[in-house]
From TrEMBL:
The keyword NAD applies. It comes from the Bacteria. Transmembrane segments: none annotated. This is SDR family oxidoreductase. Belongs to the short-chain dehydrogenases/reductases (SDR) family. It comes from Bacillus aquiflavi. Residues 6-186 form the Ketoreductase domain. Gene3D superfamilies: NAD(P)-binding Rossmann-like Domain.
Amino acid sequence: MNLEGKVALITGGAGGIGKGIATAMIKHGAKVVIVDINKEAGMSTQRQLSEFGSIHFMEKDISLRESASEIINEALAQFGQLDILVNNAHASRQAPFIETTPQDFELSFHTGFYPTVNLMQAAYEQLKKNKGFVINFASGAGISGQVNQSSYASAKEAIRGLTRTVANEWAKDGINVNLISPIAKTEGVQQWREKFPEQYEKVVSGIPLGRMGDPEKDIGEVAVFLSSESSSYITGQTIMVDGGTLKLT
Ligand SMILES: NC(=O)c1ccc[n+]([C@@H]2O[C@H](COP(=O)([O-])OP(=O)(O)OC[C@H]3O[C@@H](n4cnc5c(N)ncnc54)[C@H](O)[C@@H]3O)[C@@H](O)[C@H]2O)c1
């Protein structure tokens, strides 16, 4: 799974799964652009990963509509091409549905769903030219209907519907578009654990493989596979990288 000569752009790449993917991709030879709202974490990740290869950190809020074209233009100015787009960042607030506000739905759709739409559209010409790969992010919360996660689960399932459609439309262009539905130990999961400890324990104790995933070794390596020629006959699929928790039929 060699990514040499490829350029990958990863949203939310400063921490968590995004950082794990950036690490795996750079180790497999890709030049990597990480986009994140957290400047301190982004700069730190850029410093850490620069020992493995070429990396560029971009401080951006992906929820702003104009960010998409700015992000693609800056990535092209930096590395001259784009082959892999990973729509990983997603922010949300968990609460019982009856307490969930319009702002909660806006937060989830404007950090998860719309940036996925906008960045895929902004990257299309490059992805078409290079027969590229897109990886979007789903969640078991959406697939199984986790309680207290209505705004997040809805945006995640919207991303799945979008991904299947775009995969079918872009197949003729040689662009593969897939989803990862992960479980991994990250800062985001830690915050959820603090708010809903019982729900967290239930999810973790229900993982057949008996552990939380590692952002680089478990999720990052699958993302490398989904961005390489080895996966060229897979598109429109949700790949469950969750220790066996959910089985799609
Ligand atoms: N970790 C899990 O177990 C798990 C489970 C299911 C789905 N997911 C999905 O996997 C992806 C990564 O999850 P994670 O746990 O690593 O998340 P995380 O919360 O730990 O990290 C998300 C990153 O995105 C950045 N970000 C947030 N809002 C942003 C914005 N507006 N603009 C730019 N950057 C922004 C954050 O600063 C952070 O670096 C998400 O799509 C998440 O929904 C994760």
